[in-house]
Amino acid sequence: MITRRSIAASIAAATLSTAALAQPAPASSTKSSAGAASSAPSFDAKVELQADRPGPTINRNIYGSFAEHLGRGVYEGIWVGEGSPIPNTRGLRNDVIAALRKVRLPVLRWPGGCFADEYHWRDGIGRRAQRPRRANTSWGGVETNAFGLHEFMDFAALIGAEPYVSVNVGSGTPQEMMEWLEYMTSGSDSALAQLRRSNGRKEPWKVKFVGIGNEAWGCGGNMTPEHYADEYKRYAAFVKKYGDESFVKIAVGPSDEDYNWTEVVMKQAAKHIDGLSLHYYTLPTGNWKSKGSATTFEEPEWRSTLSRTLRMDTFITKHSAIMDKYDPQKRVALIVDEWGTWYDTEPGKGALYQQSTLRDGLVAALNLNLFNQHADRVKMAASAQTINVLQSMILTDQAKMVLTPTYHVFEMYAVHQDATLLPLEIKAPRYGAGADALPSLHGSASRDARGVLHVSLVNLDPKRSAEVTLALKGRSAKSISGRVLTAATINALNDFQSGSVVVPKPLEGKVTSGGVSVSLPSKSVSVLSIE
Ligand code: AHR
Asked: d(Cα 340, Cα 363) in Å, to the nearest integer?
C-alpha cells in the first residue's frame, strides 16, 4: 500500500536506546508555579527574546492541513450529504465548518496523498447520481465521488481556506491535468469553462497551489528522482495560465532523510519548481510494522515520540542546505505537506483512524515551532490529516464531534500567522541524560502587525514545571497574558464519552523589570502574548 524508501536506514539512525529513554529526569528544584516551596519538582529556564529585530514573515500557510479520500476523513468527516440528519450546508457538515473557521485554517490540500495518483477529476463533477463508483485502491472501499471538485471548493470557501490541489501524475496524463486546471480557473467561453458553468459554477475559482504528483518515489509511481525530475518538467510545461495569476507549482520532494532525492530533483528541475514538498511522519517506535499505540503508552514512548518529532529540524536544515546550492535566493519554498504522528490504526473505525492525546498536542507544537523557525525556507505545510485520519484536528462519530489537542494547538498558534519571526534563545536543562537527552523547553516567537509579541513554549518534561524568566531585548513589557494546554496525564485525550479534557486554559505571568516571568506546567504547550 505505502512504499517508503530508506525506512530501514531512517529507523537505524533514529533508534533510541530503551535504557536511555527510561531514565528519569532529574529534578533541579522544588518550586511550585507560584515560586513557593512545594513537592512539585521544577526547573529554571532563561529565555531571551529580541523583540525589535527584523525577520522573515511566518507564512500563514504553514498552518495548513490535508484531507484525503481515506477512511472517514472526507465521507462523514466533511461530507454527510444534503439529506443527512447531521446539520449541514449543501451536504458539508456545519460543526466541522465552524471548527475549521475558528482555527483559521489557511490552506487545505486535496484529494491526496496516494489517492491523488489514482483520482480522475471528471469522475467528481456533474450530477451526483451519475458519478461513477470506483474502487479506492489506495485505502480500500468504494469511492462514490459524491464529494468531488465542486464540493471541495465549496468546503474550502466555507472554511476560508485556499485550495491546494494535487494532480494525478502516477496514472494520469498532462492532458488530464491541463483540462482540470482550465476547468477550474478559466473565465473564457472555452468548452471546459462552459462545462464548469453548466455544472453550477459561473465564475472561475482561484486556485494557486498545484501539487504535481504525490510521493512519486513510492505510491505515486515508484520512480527514481531522475525519472521524476523529467516527468515533473513535462507536466510543469503544461501548467498554463488561464487567468491573471500563475499557478504555484509544487514538485514531489523527499521523505524524511532522502537527501539524494532533493539533490537530483533540484539539480535537474529547480528553475521550473516553485515549491518542493517534504513528508515526515512521527512513529513512536520508528517501525512501520509496529508503530505503537496512540493512547496506551508510558514515558519512554512519550520521549521517543517527541525525540523523533524533533528530527524534523535536521531534515529541514539539511534539505534547505541542498536547496541553497541550486536556489541561493530561496525562491523555491520547502513545503512540508504531510507531517504528524502515525500510530497503529484503531480497528473498526476506518482506515488510519487513531485517537489523539496530549502527546499529539506537543508533537504539533514542536513541528509548528520548527516551521516558524525555518520561515525563510518553509512557506507552507499541511498536517496529516484534518479529520478522522492520523493526527487529526477533529474526530467525529456520526453526529458527534470532538476537537483534539492538536486542534487546540493550531488555534493557539494562529497568532503567528503572517507575523514576523523573532530570535528566541532558550537556556534550560536537558530532559533526560546522555546523548538521547532532549531539550526540556522548545519555542518560537513572533511580532504581529500590531506589535504584539507572541511566544510559544513547549515544556517537554512530563514531571517538572518550568520557572521561566524571559528577558525582553529592544522593548519593555507592559502586560502579559497567556494560554496553556496541559492535562493530568501524558495520554489524556478528548473523546465522545468523557468530552473535552484537554483544552486551553488561561495562564498568568508577571511583568518584571527586564521582561516577564511565568511558570509553565510540566507536559504543556503555552502561548504568551506580551504588549
Ligand atoms: O497520509 C496518509 C498517506 O501517507 C498519504 O496518502 C501518502 O502520501 C503518505 O504515504
From this structure: 7
Q: Whose CA is nearest to atom 10 of ligand 1?
A: 2
Per the CB < 8 A criterion, the answer to whether 367 and 63 are in contact is no
443 C-beta closer than 6 A to ligand 1: no
Q: Measure CA of the first residue to CA of the last residue in the chain; give whole Å.
A: 51
In angstroms, the Cα distances linking 310 to 133, 315, 343, 408 are: 41, 9, 17, 20
pLDDT tens readout for residues 292-328: 999 999 999 999 999 999 999 999 999 999 999 999 9
Q: How far is the CA of 528 from the centre of ligand 1 (A)?
A: 34
Indicate the DSSP class of residue 419. P
Crossing angle (nearest 10°) for helices 7-14 and 299-326: 120
Whole-model pTM: value is: 0.93
Contact 165 CB / ligand 1 (< 6 Å): no
**In 315-452, where do the E strands start and end?**
333-341, 378-384, 394-397, 400-403, 420-422, 424-427, 430-431, 438-439, 441-447
Residue 450 Cα to ligand 1 middle (Å):
38
Give nearest CA residue, ligand 1 atom 9: 113
Asked whether the beta carbons of 408 and 503 are under 8 A apart, the reply is: yes
| Block residue for cell numbers 530561496 | 330
Name the grid cell of 514: 527586564
| Nearest alpha-carbon partner for 340 in 120, 142, 5, 73 | 73
pLDDT digits (tens, 9 = 90+) for 38-67: 456 999 999 999 999 999 999 999 999 999
DSSP code for 497: T
